[in-house]
Fold:
Amino acid sequence: MALKGDAQLTQREMLRTKFKDQYESEYQQLSTRVQQYTTIETGMEGEYYEFPIIGGTEMREYNDTRHTIVEDDVRFAKRGMRYRKFFNAIPISKDEVRDMGKYEYTLAHIKTQQIAAAKRMLDAVALGVVKDADTGKWRLKTDADGGYCGGILGTNYGGDGGINKLVLDTSYASFKNGTGNLVPIDYATSGKGVSTAFSGTFLDKLGYVRRRLEELDVFDPTEPGALCVCISPAVKQMVQALELKLSRDYGFSTLGEAGTTTYLPKTGVTWVVSNMLPTMDTETKDGTAVNGARMCCAWLKNRIGFGVWDDWEYITQQLTEKVDVRERSLATGYFGCGRKDEHSVFVLPELETNGVI
Structure:
């Protein structure tokens, strides 16, 4: 017998609470998605989060007694992270409930879709990208999009109050000076060996990244997977195909689908496959322009902070302004991501070949 009146309302309230609790539990676990390639900062409040002190000191050697103490200041810079706000609202139509079956079945599927949307947003915030409303393609988020930026590739914040805008230097001139964040699209080590083909050249680029990190005293070889690399599905296809062609085993065949993260011991790298990487214009070593290169990138996991703010919720609320809609599922979330420095992030542009080797 169907429940009526207050009893039916109570049943619906119980279901709303049930799926709210389920969403909250699954939402809390979402941070494990980006925890494989960032450092998670949880329970944050307010508009702006400032990272702990960044810096270091050096020891002085002495060879006599009663040596006068010479003091050092700890070098540090203020780096911060601001949140990006998201929401998704799904109306629950009476007709849809009738077509899909029971009310509980409908809520279960809507909750699943809300979680999937939140997962995609975590990846977008981590990279610092946004989907273009006109083209439908992912690109770097800018101030013109409104709200705050941030992320591994995007504009970051520093200085007092986080008012200084910090961007990656992807000019070829900075690479020639041994600084900046670009690894040229045609970079290869001298001589023969793995640099004779695309997959080898990509490993050459990672070798250069490791070298730069080691020279900066920020690379910790004791932490497996500390170095992270993000590639597109097309680049994944290329490295897998050439791995077979070269009869080598780098482990590329075990890379997962877009949105997955895999640690490959043979490369010592945590590989992230993403369909959210934007494109960029760059140039080769001889100055030839290259347009539309995929913005693959590499970074140190412990130099990227990902923030999960407390102000998020999932509710099913009653509506009265629509003919066939009586309820709406509303999910909101607040995430942020920021670099702790620019020195440990590298851009590795790759020209995709649409599967043609």
Q: What stands out?
A: The longest helix spans residues 5-29.
